[in-house]
Amino acid sequence: MLRIDYQLQPSQLIPLVDRLFSLSSEKISNLQRRWDPQKGSPVFTVEGSYTSRGWTEWTQGFQFGSAILQYDVSGDKEFLVIGREGTLREMPRHISHVGVHDHGFNTISTCGNLLRLVHEQKIPFDQWERNFYELAIKVSGAVQAARWTDLGEDGGFIYSFNGPHSLFADTIRSLRVLAVAHQLGHVLMGEKDRKINLLERLLQHAETTARYNVYYGQGRDSYDVSGRVAHESIFNVNDGSYRCPSTQQGYSPFSTWTRGLAWILLGYAEEIEFLDTRSEEELSPFGGSERIRNAFYVVAEAVADFYIKDAPTDGIPYWDTAAPGLARMGNFLERPAEPFNDFEPVDSSAAAIAAQGLVRLGNCLTKAGHADRGKSYLQAGLTVASKLFQEPYLSANPEHEGLILHSVYHRPNGWDHIPSGRKVPCGESSMWGDYHARELALLLRRMAQNEPYYTFFVNK
Q1: Beta partners for 100?
Q2: Residue percentage of the chain with pLDDT more than 90
Q3: Which residues contact 309 (CB under 8 A, 6 or more apart)?
């Protein structure tokens, strides 16, 4: 169980944050000099060098988004050039990609961040540049929303690359692009010029995910424990009925793949932040702001409590809560995670994602008048960040292209590198883990220095 440091303050993490961005600077520059775009998107490292993995193109936004975040912190125009030119050159094909559910990962990390910097006046204003980012987000949000499985009166969901029967936990965080596209006044146009509300699609997907991918230990889930997450839910597309839980990257449909839980935690927390900017008039057709926010809080708090309870004492989780080798590790939840063990890998990328979710959830609850609950989650997030931003997770080796070590991609497929002399993957980085560490560090830096609060949407 995570041992929460209730005295830790964001300001105390500034030295760690500054060191992280100092190391990040050289790693982004080195990858930019070496990487051949013809190889596709960099995904994860093998012996310290980034490699690609043809499956779905979901990490390129993190590549250029990392440079944009680096510019946000440093003001060094080298990184603005990398992020802006990479976005203009490589990202258009992602904007209209009809084969994936990852638009929010790619588009908001690039065009979304650049649009935010325009509004924050951190880059010179150019009307056509702003128009480009806004149009890209609108198109991307509509394309993602069009990947729709209709469940009739029970709503529906944005289906994964596996097909119309498949609902992934991951997609909850990719909903960001629907949110910003809606904020920009866009709709998805359907047959007979039907206008499809992107906020409604976002809320329907979130409700379906909450109902089927998250367990609450009561009612239908009385056999289970509160906060457990199934990576995938399977539906019969002929009649829209739910069939069973499943997983692609976890150990079992009846265990929790910890990165899937992290996506849920961060996704719902930041969507609460977005909903807080919407009016009662806008939300009333969908049940009203109070009902919607309360439902989102139920999900976020359930998975946050599960994460805290089922993590090692430092908050860095193993890749799955029921990975079989854990049974050979004794009381592994009563000590810090061991990335160099012989039985099961940890997943630092899950920690980077979950820590941000904990911080945002804590801030939301505090703002809503629930200071005690808010403080608990905020301090949990700060505690995880304080461990993640130091060795053995922070990569100080200039020859290693990754920023955060001990990330895992796809354990069931055997895609992760196992170093010589080791029995399980360790010592490698992922593009999403590095990006989310930078995003977490930016959030904490702004909180500590009383700068504008960092959100995925333009906070007018």
Answers
A1: none
A2: 96
A3: 1, 2, 227
Using CA atoms, how far residue 313 sits from 259, 275, 310, in Å, is 18, 33, 9
The secondary structure of residue 148, as a DSSP letter, is: E
DSSP 3-state helix, strand, coil percentages of the chain (rounded to 5)? Answer: 55, 10, 40
Encoded tokens for 423: 């029995």
Token pair of 270 as six digits: 């930041």
Rounded to two decimals, what is the model's pTM?
Answer: 0.98
The mean per-residue pLDDT over the stretch 25-42 comes to 94
Q: What is the DSSP string of 163-189?
A: -TTEEESTHHHHTHHHHHHHHTT--EE
Tokens describing residue 309: 């309870």
What does the CA dihedral 97, 99, 101, 107 come to, rounded to 10 degrees?
-10
Q: Which residues contact 218 (CB under 8 A, 6 or more apart)?
A: 226
Residue 447 contacts residue 425 (beta carbons within 8 Å): no
Contact 232, 160 (CB under 8 A): yes
- The number of C-alpha atoms within 13 Å of 345 and in the hemisphere containing its C-beta is 32
* 3-class DSSP assignment, residue 49: strand
Cis, bond preceding 392 (omega within 30 deg of 0)? yes
38 in a structural domain: yes
Distance CA(408)–CA(412), nearest Å, equals 11
Dist. CA 80–CA 58, nearest whole Å: 21
Average pLDDT along the chain: 96
Residues 209 and 157: beta-carbon distance below 8 Å: yes
| Residue 222 located in a structural domain | yes
Among the listed residues 53, 130, 191, 72, the one whose alpha carbon sits nearest the alpha carbon of residue 438 = 72
Q: State phi, psi for 94 to the nearest 5 degrees.
A: -75, -30
The token duo for 450 is 């009383």
Question: Is 175 inside a domain boundary?
Answer: yes
pLDDT tens digits for 359-403?
999 999 999 999 999 999 999 999 999 999 999 999 999 999 999
Residue 424 placed within a domain = yes
Question: Look-up: residue for tokens 């258009």?
Answer: 92
Cα distance between residue 111 and residue 140, in whole Å:
10
Bin 414: left if φ > 0, else alpha if -120 < ψ < 50, else beta: left
Q: How many domains does the chain have?
A: 1
Kindly tell me if the per-residue pLDDT of 197 is higher than 90.
yes
In CATH, what number is assigned to the domain containing residue 358?
A: 1.50.10.10
Domain range enclosing 172: 10-448
DSSP type of residue 257 = B
CA nearest to 434, candidates 457, 399, 458, 409? 409
